Amino acid sequence: MTTTIPLEVVLAAGHRPLDLNNVFVSDPDAPGLVREAERVGYPRTACAWIKGIYALLRRHRVDQVVMVTEGDCSQTHAMMETLRDEGLVLVPFAYPYDRDRERLRHELEKLLRHFGVTWEDAEEIRRELVPLRRKVAQLDAMTWQQGTVTGWENHLYQVSCSDFQGDPSLFGAQVEALLGVARERGARPWRLRVGFVGVPPVYTDLYSFLEEREVLVAYNEVQRQFTMADSLDCDLLEQYARYTYPYDVFGRLADIGREVKRRRLDGVIHYVQAFCFRQIQDQLIRRRVACPVLTLEGDSPGPLEARNRLRLEAFLETLDSRRRVAG
Ligand code: SF4
Asked: What is the CATH number of the domain that holds 60?
């Protein structure tokens, strides 16, 4: 999948869902994948995620990909078209921009037909996944309420809910193990609490950079959306209608506003990917979020560059001063 889709349908059909973003960013040769796409003809000014996923699909000779045609981005469309020309079969899925339930139902029905499963089959999987989703929500609560699950762990386990690493049972065992370890940990003293909003970062060391400076990432916006923690009691249709990421930015802003307050965040890091259309939404996030916001732009996979390390240091100092003034 090029982004999160109703993976209950894929699981009901007996397949292993794989979110290509997760596969790309955890590939030890992620920078090499980006360069490979550029050698084939992808422009320097295309998003690194797009180039990485393109090269990954070519290397691994994948036959079929569920591609989100509405609710993701136009660079994905163009990337999939280049792969279609090379023989890849595309399965389209669209999140209607206005969250129209009837259109979403129609899209889900198309997906069910494609995979040869029924609503009831997919609903059964949804019900089976609720306890696992609840446990991941518990990990999230342990981050912002007790500080015993780190921001990196919070990121990793929540982002993994976009595909459950292809195997919900195995992933569930890992979640259970982390819950056990975290329950035994004492809470660390955190100097500041920040939120991370925007697409997951291409950087490999952002969370460790913050943790080394005793900064707790107490909120991972899009990653938390993958857990569907706000719709555990809803049916499949409503679950994917409430999921904020593929729809307009205002649903995201309401979610961010609520969590900034609830989690008592000192500041927010808005991560934007170089050449991504979502950078245009940065002005709305800066205007509407009720705490200091740092916009951090990343391009290639790898460690933070010196410039962004300096910008982060300066931002943390500003947050420290605000804390001191507030007493
Ligand atoms: S970061 Fe932006 S441009 Fe890149 S794949 Fe995601 S939505 Fe598309």
From this structure: 3.40.50.11890
- Domain extent, residue 101, equals 7-118
In a domain, 248, yes or no: no
Tens-place pLDDT, residues 44-57: 999 999 999 999 99
Asked, for residue 247, whether it belongs to a domain, the answer is no
Q: Give the contacts of 41 (CB within 8 A, at least 6 positions apart).
A: none
> What residue's CA is closest to ligand 1, atom 2?
276
Mean pLDDT by 10 residues, the chain (327 residues): 94 95 94 97 96 93 84 90 90 93 97 97 98 98 96 98 97 98 91 97 97 97 97 97 95 98 98 96 96 97 97 98 89
Residue 53: CB partners within 8 Å, gap ≥ 6?
2, 20, 21, 24, 79
Cα 59 from Cα 23, distance rounded (Å): 12
The answer to the question of residue 167 being in a domain is no
Instruction: State which ligand 1 atom lies nearest to the alpha carbon of 53.
Output: 5
| Three-state SS at 67 | strand
Q: Beta strand 267-273 with 215-220: parallel, antiparallel or unpaired?
A: unpaired
Using most ligand atoms within 8 A of CB, pick from 76, 245, 282 the residue to mutate for ligand 1: 76
Nearest to 17 by CA among 273, 247, 226: 226
* Pocket flag, ligand 1, residue 47 (CB < 6 Å): yes
pTM, full prediction: 0.95
In a domain, 108, yes or no: yes
